[in-house]
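User: Before I run my own analysis I want an independent prediction to cross-check against. Here's the chain; please return only the structure tokens and, at the end, one sentence I can use as a sanity check.
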Amino acid sequence: MLDRDQLETFAVVIEQQSFEKAATALSITRGAVSQRIKALEESLSTVLVLRDRPVSPTPAGEVLLRYVKALRIMEGSALQELAPQPKLHAPVPLSIAVNADSLATWFPAVLKELLLSQLVALEVIADDQDHTSQLLSRGEVIGCISTSAKAADGFMAECLGAMEYRCYATPEFAASAFPDGLNVPSVLAAPAVLFNRKDSLHDDFLKSRFGFSIDRYAKHFLPSPVALLEGVAMGAGYGLIPSTQAQPVVDSGRLVDLCPNHRVMVDLYWHHWELEPPLAHDVTALIVKVAQRELVSRAVEEPVLVVAGSDDSARGPRHASPAVASNKTKADCNTH
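Assistant: Structure tokens:
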């Protein structure tokens, strides 16, 4: 049987990315932390921790960290059920990775239910895709949103639906920059508003519209969904924005759709542990339920640009995490 103190020490070392910080967090000495990790590695006959700066888990350590995280969740859930007044018991810590556009549009409905339940202490991580992918594989988050339909070994990918993007500008900007519509000369002259340098959604949109790639155009980079929307709404340029986020501004007359017959669809998937503790399973069920209610079903037959599985390039999953390697996709976004 694995020693619980050793397991907790190992998890804290990985979470803190430092033996010294772990010692402080656990109120023990640096030497005691090292001894516990060494004893745990000897009991399993494998190296669990890479002694670098920062400290990181080995592949075996990633497997063990997922186990510790699941153990914490199951223990917290059990204590809540056993307590006479479950909601008064300490919430169970959970971490998830969510892309920025989802946080700005449909995901608050998930957050409301999770946070008001008072059953979880939730950490939402919005970070670079490569980083969040590592967080998922290491077990530091119980799930993440991705455009990839392929799940890594030990994980599942469930279809959530698609986010719809349209190309917007203010009426004044549209009249000034695109008097003859969205054509190549006007695109080369007019500034576009993008999320960041990894944002290829605008490039994909232009290639779909004109049939060839265009990349030498002026770009503003505003790495926040709210800032991007405001940048377009103030007339600084034109850009692709989730239609649900832009709709109130369109209804007010401040924005117009430059290409009413051309929309961009970005398929989203929820990646999570294949074997989930009950509480994590409930979180997955809630996310899938809300997403399939709020996102666009891709069963509609019409010409659209579809961005899916584009891992580190598509803006749609801004700061989402690509998962790679296997085929454990529970549902296809074209069929739900």
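Sanity check: The radius of gyration is 23 Å.
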